[in-house]
Known about the structure:
Blueprint: E1 9-13, E2 20-25, E3 33-39, E4 45-51, E5 58-63, E6 72-76
Amino acid sequence: MCADAGALMRVTLAPDRASVTSVVPLLPANDRANTDATLAPDGNTVLFLSRAGSGNPILYRIRLDAPGAVPIKVADMPVPEITGGGGLHVHLVAAQ
């Protein structure tokens, strides 16, 4: 779950999936915009974009099955130049 511009949360459901039993942060508090969390095909890793200020986004991954896991940088995400003005927003929609 993405809460605000900097928080990614792990939501745990009850066994019957009818209610939420806990919500805990995946990341330590920071001043970055962390967005576009996407579950990796292994089902145990989340990929997400992180941006400091107006800089280009960076792709990170974090394990869900390792309590206390630390985000690991995967790659800087290049943002193509746009001619004619307008802004370009990079979004992570799938992972392979």
